[in-house]
Amino acid sequence: MNMSNDLVTLTDKQKKAQRSRSLALALALAAFVIVVYVGTWAKIGANHSQTAPVTRPLQ
């Protein structure tokens, strides 16, 4: 079976739609990464501010 004859050629309109979907997906992924990053730092900051300061033991 020759697979080279089974290729699909996209029209310009289909290529534009595919680029738009790819861009939307990339932006959504970037937004998700930023939300997780900021949320992680916010959680770390909240936990850090609640911990007791490190003190030396009395001698």
Helix content: 55-70%
- Name the structural class: mainly alpha
Write down the secondary-structure element order. Answer: H
Straight-line N-to-C gap? 84 Å
Give the overall silhouette: rod-shaped
Strand % is: under 5%
**Number of helical regions:** 1
Spans where pLDDT lies below 50 across 5 or more residues: none
Protein name: CoxF protein
Keywords: Membrane, Transmembrane, Transmembrane helix
Organism: Phyllobacterium endophyticum
Transmembrane segments: 23-42
Characterize the structure shown.
With 59 residues, the protein is mainly alpha-helical. The protein has one helix and no strands. It has one helix spanning 12-50. The termini are far apart. The mean pLDDT is 85. Keywords: Membrane, Transmembrane, Transmembrane helix. This is CoxF protein. It comes from Phyllobacterium endophyticum. The chain crosses the membrane at residues 23-42.
Give a quick set of tags describing it:
mainly alpha, 59 residues, 66% helix
